[in-house]
Amino acid sequence: MPPLIKSSSRSFRPVDVKFGPDGALYICDWYNPIIGHYQASFRHPDRDKTHGRIWRVTAKGRALTQPPKLPDSSVPELLDHLKSSDRWTRRFAKRVLADRPTDQVTAALKEWTAQPGCSEHALIEALGVYQSHEFVATDLLARLCRAREPGARAYAAGVAGAWADRLPDPLALLRPLVADENARVRLQAVVACTYVPKPEAMEVAAIAADLPTDRFLNYALNQAVFALKAYWLPAFKAGKLNLENKSSRLGLLVRADGTSDTLQAVRDLLKSVRMDSAIRETYLRILVETGDANDLAAILSLSDPSLQARLLPALAADASARDLRPAGDLTAALRPLIASRNSELRAEVLRLAGVWKLEVFRADAENIARDGTASETVRRAAIEAIAGLGGERSNAILTVLAAPEEAVSIRSAAIAALCGFDLESAAEFASRSLARLNNGAAFDEIFSSFLRRQGGAAALAVALARRPLPKLAAEAGLRLMNAGGRRNDQLARVLAEAAGFKSEGKTVTAAEIAAFASEVRASGDARHGAEIFHRAELGCTACHTVNGQGGNVGPDLSALGTAQPVDFIIGAILDPQKEVKEGYMSVSVLMKDGEEFQGYQVRETSGELVLRDVLQNKEVRLRRDTIKETKQNGSVMPSGLADTLTRAEFRDLVRFLSELGKPR
């Protein structure tokens, strides 16, 4: 909207704004030509210390409101003022109610909140009145904890904390709120847990660590760990703190507390022979993620090969995220493991040799990678090790393994590894292989390896433009791009053409969207739209859940039709960045080695960033000093998804989405 008020005067300095009881907007104007504290002397004659202005802004042709005579109003009348659209009226109605007799107000409130059609906003105001009288309204509080509006649930969480010492079971109210879909609700619930002096309060607050966090939630969780430590630490040391075997929750305690006593408690608990095997593995994993070099060395001497195989990837992550390796002679520790009969363990040991750049194992990796009798799992791991060791020798070996004569999975692994050496060469091998392949896993590996490298999509597009691509491979590439949120227009055009999709530019003006919305309502076919929604190349089901089916990358669409109008749905598909739902703002990270990640931030510290990468569908730990650039990326849903649809197909898709959640 245009500026409400502006002036050419050098003294015009608006510093505050408030709505008055008459509905007018009041602007406080400091009215001083000098605003700097240091640019001019405090004794400068132009400093005006006596004058100021207040501007009143009103709507033309609209009468000012008459503020109600609140002091003369009855309790029922004051309660009705809580429904006013005027904030001033609501605020001062509550102020007057606070001075009325408690028994009169609470009795009237009970009847007033039971009225049908009482909005959640009005119920929030009512709860505030109860607070002013220090009256614990358990039924109303429980009702607002289940409210549809996130702001109401967040307010209720705060009240639950304030009333924690007077509620029969405050944690029962807070438990679902710490896992709420809305980040603000989770934040308020975590803070509220700190008012409950019990170890169980930490159990409940830690649930929030299972979901994505931002810097505000991270701060609240860390403070909860500190505030409740006197209660949870004794229970933790005794093995009685129930974290439901979730590594995210245990990791929160160890990382946030950051003291040796918590880490030592983990070590002591691991010595217990009574510990459940699943819990033991979780504790070992946390020790790997947060412990020292000696803790990591203990993993290499475990007697259970299967357990070792599951934990060794965490050692590899430590090398990249914390630049930490196990203590001792790594060659001596890995040599017997690389000869293990357990193929999964052998594979992980080979990968570690590459991550740790143990040149002594290069010959082993090369021999295994070229051994056609070895299992594909171990051969693929050997290829990763060769890539990790780097150098021209690795490049030459990978070039041989990317040849058409090799098995499909070996060839795709070699092409993926080559992307870290020579994108143009890797793209040429990829174009040859994709023209002959009929393997979904190989398609995904090859396409994703290029999408994860800076300039990779462009290099692949150039190579594919020179060689015809089968429809199946092109559709797989489009599906991966759409589901992974990695959109490259050049590659998208090549794939769409190869898949036989004719790109149609979609309307974007408000008038055209309104006209198309009318067309959707009049002739859209929801049943056909459902078929389009489930097309693999669009990637809709890979990201969105509908009635319990689908992915969890994007928002749940099960009730979309009841929450958003048709024109909004159209606009959201055509321009996903225009309005991004809270909690689904993604970030993209470019590493110094050219690798790219895109997804949702899980947590961050001064030393690392943890991201749930959408393309890989897993958490990745990124060391700060290896990151080149981080930027907010908006929605992971790429624009242009509807370009491959005909007008009729797009119309039917929108009709299907607009019907979701509505009774049939």
List the helices and strands and how they pair.
Layout: E1 14-19, E2 25-29, E3 53-57, H1 75-81, H2 87-99, H3 102-113, H4 120-132, H5 138-145, H6 150-162, H7 170-177, H8 183-193, H9 199-205, H10 215-227, H11 229-237, H12 247-257, H13 260-270, H14 277-290, H15 293-300, H16 305-321, H17 330-334, H18 343-355, H19 362-370, H20 376-389, H21 392-401, H22 408-418, H23 423-434, H24 440-451, H25 456-465, H26 471-484, H27 489-499, H28 510-523, H29 526-533, H30 540-543, E4 545-546, E5 549-550, H31 560-563, H32 566-574, E6 586-591, E7 596-604, E8 608-613, E9 618-623, E10 627-634, H33 647-659
Antiparallel strand pairs: 1-2, 2-3, 4-5, 6-7, 6-10, 7-8, 8-9
Helix pairs in contact: 1-2, 2-4, 3-4, 4-6, 5-6, 6-7, 6-8, 7-8, 8-9, 8-10, 9-11, 10-12, 12-14, 13-14, 14-16, 16-18, 18-20, 19-20, 20-21, 20-22, 21-22, 22-23, 22-24, 23-25, 24-25, 24-26, 25-27, 26-27, 28-32, 28-33, 29-33
Q: Can you walk through the features of this model?
A:
The protein has 4 domains: 1-66, no CATH class; 73-264, Leucine-rich Repeat Variant, CATH 1.25.10.10; 292-499, Leucine-rich Repeat Variant, CATH 1.25.10; 510-659, SH3 type barrels (Roll). The model has no long low-confidence stretch (mean pLDDT 89). It is globular, with a radius of gyration of 31 Å. With 664 residues, the chain is an alpha+beta fold. It has a 5-stranded antiparallel sheet with strand order 9-8-7-6-10.
